Amino acid sequence: MRAPATTHGSLRVRGLLLLAALAATLPAQTHWAFEPPQKNVPTTTDPWCRDDIDHCVLALLATTKQRPAKAAEPALLLRRAHLVLTGLPPTTDQVAAFLADTTSDAYERRVDELLRSDACAEHLATDWLDLARFADTYGFQSDFECRTWPFRDWLIRAFAADMPWDQFVREVLAGDLLPDATIRTRTATAFWRLHRQTNEGGSIDEEWRHEYIADRTDTFGAAFLGLTIGCARCHDHKSDPITQRDYYSLGSFFQIDEAGLYPYSTGGTPQPALRLATPEQAAEIARLQNVMAAAERVHTEAMVQAEPVGVVAVPKAIARFQFAATVNGSCRDDLAERDANVPAECVPVDGQSGGAIVCDGDARITVPKLPAFTRDAAFSVRLGLWCKDRKERAVVLHTSHYTEDADTQGYQVLLKDGRLCWEIVHHWPGSAIAVCMHEELPLQRWCDVVLTYDGSSRASGLAVFLDGQLGRVDVVRDHLAGPATVRQLELGGRDRDRGFAGGRLEHFALFDRALSAAEVALLAGKPVEEGPRVAHLRAHAPAVVAANVAWREARLALHGYVEAIPELMVMQAHGQPPARFVLRRGAYDQPLRDQPVQPNVPASLLPPGASGPRDRLALAAWLNEPSHPLAARVVVDRMWALCFGRGLVSTPDNFGRLGVRPSQQVLLDALACDFARDRSQKNLLRRIVCSATFRQSSTASAAEREADPHNERLARGPSFRLSAEVLRDQALAASGLLHQEVGGPSVKPWQPPGLWRDAGVGWGGSDYAPDTGPNAHRRSLYTFRKRTSGPPDMLALDAGSREVCSVRRQPTDTPLQALVFLNDPVFTECAAALATAALQRAPADVEQQLVFVVQSLAALAPRAAELAALRALHATEPEALRALTLVASTCMASDAVVVLR
Amino acid sequence: MNGPYELDALARARRAFLGRGTLGLGALALHSLGLAPADTPRLPHFTPRARRVVYLFQAGGPSPFETFDEKPLLRERHGEALPPSVLGGQRLTGMSGNQAILPMAGSFTPFRQHGRSGLHISDLLPHTARIADQLCVVRTMHTEAINHDPAITFFCTGSQISGRPAMGAWAAYGLGADSRELPAFVVLVSKDAQRDQPLYARLWGTGFLPGEYQGVPFRPGASPVLFLDNPEGVTSGARREQLAALAALHRDQFVHEEDAAIRARQAAAELAFRMQASVPEVADVSNEPAEVFALYGEGARQAGTYAANCLLARRLLERGVRFVQLFHQGWDQHGSLPRDLTRQCQQTDQASAALVADLQRRGLLEDTLVVWGGEFGRTAYCQGKLTKDDYGRDHHPRCFSMWLAGGGVRAGHVHGRTDPFGYNIEDGAVHVHDLHATMLHLLGCDHERLTWRFQGRDYRLTDVAGRVVRELLA
After folding, report:
1. Between A292 and B24, residue with greater pLDDT
2. What is the CATH number of the domain that holds B415?
3. For labeling, which of A125, A194, A560, B337 is most exposed (least CB within 10 Å)?
4. What is the ipTM of this complex?
5. How many Å lie between the alpha carbon of A35 and the closest alpha carbon of chain B?
6. A847: Cα within 13 Å, side-chain hemisphere
7. Looking at the domain assignment, is residue B15 inside a domain?
8. Residues 102..141 of A with a Cβ closer than 8 Å to B: which?
9. In a domain, B250, yes or no
10. For the segment A567-606, what is each residue's pLDDT rounded down to a tens digit?
11. What residues contact B74, with CB distance under 8 A and at least 6 apart?
12. Which residue of B has its CA nearest to A234?
């Protein structure tokens, strides 16, 4: 903590201007972190040194005539390596074997084994979950569950394979854009979709869409640049060379075709999404796609060969309503046993050939019991309508629940900017097909509108006819990737949407196939021209009809198969990204129209690379430039913090001018230069933990601690409070309860009952249902994370809530933590299991039992005073298991266990 | 009750305390002993008017039109469309923003004047009416958010979006606790409320401040704090033995490591032990006399109700908790407002008033700030269908009512004026940041100087805005 001096807000305007002017006049190169790192390792001949790391450290210590500390006790060093590399403690047998191993490279071999372990991959992935703001729920308001764990599995696999850092960056940033993109590489891009999302009714779609892009932008800055670029959302960054324009340009990389709200009542995954097909499933999909393509070819050929025989007849509808026939709010279907409900607000008015009704924009005509067409079915809609005025937006007909802010699904007819639009929607806008008429709808005259769909799931299968004439349309969306489930059909408006106010409806009919142009002409009382007549007759030749049925069945088979495969939110290039502007003070509704932006990198840090598309792949390449001033330093510092509990930069969230200069820049830069070449995170880790610096004892006198409280000079080894996850995993592992299964969906270990319910979070009183069996004892990175009510023991131990990207945690020591160690059933269960194991190990020897308990948790054998204290505690309880459980429980709260030393 | 390794150890730990950047045990214990680390802010900045806060958060957005801001015009023009000139092109939510007509809705319930101050309060709040002369009603609150989640997050943390510290966390960070055995910031959520809009742990979260400033939710029942109870079979005596052993382990570890954090860790364990006794004691209201239950309502006998939480809040405040925040959900009347708002008022009116009266007779009101209010107001127009005797109101951030009482605020006072439609503010606007600045001011803190450096920037509860509303001060 620093003493509060100046504050962001208390600075007077003049001060702000001054600072801004200062930042503007200072060239970017004057700040250490904005210059490329240089390797400049001092050479010493001291035999203490094992690595360049040690040369750097020793040279610094020499300036104050200090010497490094003595080597750590072997058992403690082993514990350190295990915890730092895997997050799990060594077993007593591993400690014994290590102590007995007298070969000169015993430690290095152990380190290599640890680096190869699954536990290491899991531990490294855990570190990334905070950066990824990884959670199992969306986070805002009703905080529904979302499916994100495949991204965690991707992380684990990436670390298990020690994926080269440049590849890691490429896959996370642009796994969808790679020339050889696979399901695996595309899974990596889920990183950008793990931000919180809302589905709160009434939320403004555009506001949230900007919010999500802002989160991605801020996360990019924090996780990859070590900068707080969020400041530039409202104004040019006050201290770092990031302008507001840079901020919005950078954000442009992260535009996708998404909604601001995730689906509330239709379920499903926010789009764009990826079907996570297994290789077997992918093969089956390919097969079904081939079948479908073949069926389509057969159909096309049959059309060419078919003889146009017969005549075109007026098509038969399956439902038809003449609203003039409305009696007491009810309008009978001419063709079937069903009634449309016509609210009193829809009053009668003259129609074209009889009566009609006029809509008020709020009240809706509902038509129950209509067939629920799927996206694989062909169908058509006919409407007799009269539009009073040019509508910026109006719902004429729809089959969904709420407005398209979250819940549109099915088919719909809208007016947008005066143009009639015809849409089939799974989730708007990322998964839909939609066309709008090129010309605006004529006003204040009756229009005979027919809308047809051929069941192909393609925009080309949508047609709009006006007064019997095929209309010219513009394709608005052409990517329908899921079911378009139809609910009740409504006319004249929609809940929470803008209705067809002042518009008139005379009739409405539904057909269970795509009407042909010839049929539509007939319906409109127009003469049928030769071309449409021939086309219609061909399409109704028996061979074509049969081919059409086969084609539809092939589509059904494919879609039925694909839609059962779970989805994952991912990044996907936006076909028609909306124009993007700098937003005044970051407000979504105040775009500065004279300041349009395109995707671009903050060139003041490093100019963009060679020409080419400005996409996320280019952003990855920019980050991977060997001369990038920040990219490698940020990774190296994070790895250092993993080993030493604290980065070389004490403000890992800010490498910028307001951050703190690294305590040992020579060391940081040497490692960064090597890493930029080698790109292996595990090689870097190996170097650090095998260095003489890491192997030092962490013991220090009070005076030494006072002189260098945070060990910035590295005159001693690391010591730090273990993280929440490591503390729980250590207890589980030491007690033998840990179930080591790698990957898979999140699990729900025990937590106090009623928490989700009592906090008032979630809807419908849903509560946490803990897992029993092995999943109760999985590693903590698999624990289900509900953002609005996190796992309480983890939170008490300083784990974050995963709401936004977090670069570091604030370690604290609080009474609530002591309560967790001593009372949380998760820990007390471990204590009992450890006691049981100790009893089995040495049934007759209390001292050996005590030693076993301590060594299982702390690796080091207890000192005499410690043993005496535990023996005294043990003696207060006559029953052996209970006595030993008390001992184990007490140890779990003790410094030697809670702290890495 | 003294642990085996008590104050002297703590004092020594303090002397050897870690340098800048580490807090160790932190405010909970150290502030109370005057042992706060040197680099915590030197607070208060000036003489406080209030030593503690109880915030009665009415989640969902209570309607001002049926509580504290009477609008006869809406009754007169009930059913007419709200003039577009009043709307002024302001954004509406996606729920009613597309309605073809926005009909004005007058209050179904009458108002009367109360007390010497003559405050106008609706008949739905008869108990609150009795404390009218203690209240400082602000009719001109306004906020930036229009939906629940961002709006309530904004109110509780000063920011709509990111994980910022809650108001109570700021107060705990700035001022610590007056109790050695209870957390500085306690949260109480009503169990008897209609759960129409959810609550989130982030509303009492600590954000980037250290975890010890986190709001601690007290749950109804014998074990109000998580993990408070010893595991089955571990008696209090056994726990004391465990602490003695732990102290011995730590003593030996300190001899070897000379690390002050070891002592802080032991002190935290001792404090946890004391909390195991003090927390159940404060939560147990069985010894309260019958007249207390008469005052708060019989519902106060049932742990977890709003009434019980008001009573518990008083007990926590008496024992030195700095900031108590109650949450009562169910104020989101999009429809069926007459029925549902009546229910809300019945659930909360008596206990809210009782808390103020109880604090006053105990002499605590003068330095306890009581705040009542929700995250936004409601529209002058009806959402959905307006019928003769039923209506609903959508969210409205542009003006709404709250009240303050006690610690340094003007009693029997009304601040600000809304227009005759209750749609816009005419005079005396109070932004959420202004309220926060004023609350901190009453606590003796300059809101511009209570800061925490995070990601290279000094953050405050009031972001880059906020002004102390002097007109609210006594």
Report:
1. A292
2. 3.40.720.10
3. A560
4. 0.90
5. 19
6. 5
7. no
8. 140-141
9. no
10. 999 999 988 899 999 999 999 999 999 999 999 999 999 9
11. B65, B104, B105, B106, B107, B380, B421, B422
12. B464
